[in-house]
């Protein structure tokens, strides 16, 4: 399992289009972790996986907190990555 964090979760702000992130993830075998519920879920519904999308819904915490949450749910995320679903929503 390889995870690609979108620009909203990066500690270094980047101006990268969601479509470019999607394409890069698909071409290179990554799943996407994002807080962008407006763009990535519709891409998943339209095109399906790959890539798979892990959405941190209603996320307004520092990136460090997201890192801790992802690490503490690594088994669950790994199971999602191996399954057939394209979108996994983590609600807080």
Structure in words:
By secondary structure, the protein is of the alpha/beta class. The chain has one domain. Helix content is 41%, strand content 16%. It has helices at residues 18-28, 40-47, 63-72, 74-82; strands at 3-5, 31-34, 53-56, 87-90. A four-stranded parallel sheet has the order 1-2-3-4, with helices on both faces. Helix 1 (18-28) links the parallel strand 1 (3-5) and strand 2. The radius of gyration is 12 Å and the shape is globular. The mean pLDDT is 87.
Gross morphology: globular
Strand content bin: 15-25%
Report low-confidence residues grouped into runs of 5 or more.
none
The biggest beta sheet is recorded as: 4 strands, parallel
Radius of gyration: 12 Å
Give the helix level as a range of percent. 40-55%
Order of helices and strands: EHEHEHHE
Rounded mean pLDDT is 87
Strand order of the largest sheet: 1-2-3-4
Total count of strands: 4
Whole-number count of domains: 1
Instruction: State the end-to-end distance.
Output: 23 Å
Question: Total number of helical segments?
Answer: 4
**Pairing-aware structural class of the strands and helices?**
alpha/beta
What is the fold's blueprint, element by element?
Blueprint: E1 3-5, H1 18-28, E2 31-34, H2 40-47, E3 53-56, H3 63-72, H4 74-82, E4 87-90
Parallel strand pairs: 1-2, 2-3, 3-4
Compact description:
The chain contains 4 helices and 4 strands; from the N terminus they run E-H-E-H-E-H-H-E. With 92 residues, the chain is of the alpha/beta class.
């Amino acid at each position: 399992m390889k995870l690609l964090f979108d620009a909203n979760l990066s500690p270094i702000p980047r101006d990268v289009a969601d479509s470019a992130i999607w394409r890069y993830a698909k071409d290179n075998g990554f799943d996407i972790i994002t807080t962008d519920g407006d763009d990535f879920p519709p891409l998943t519904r339209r095109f399906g996986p790959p890539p798979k999308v892990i959405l941190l819904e209603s996320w307004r915490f520092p990136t460090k907190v997201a890192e801790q949450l992802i690490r503490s749910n690594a088994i669950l995320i790994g199971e999602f990555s191996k399954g057939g679903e394209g979108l996994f929503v983590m609600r807080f």
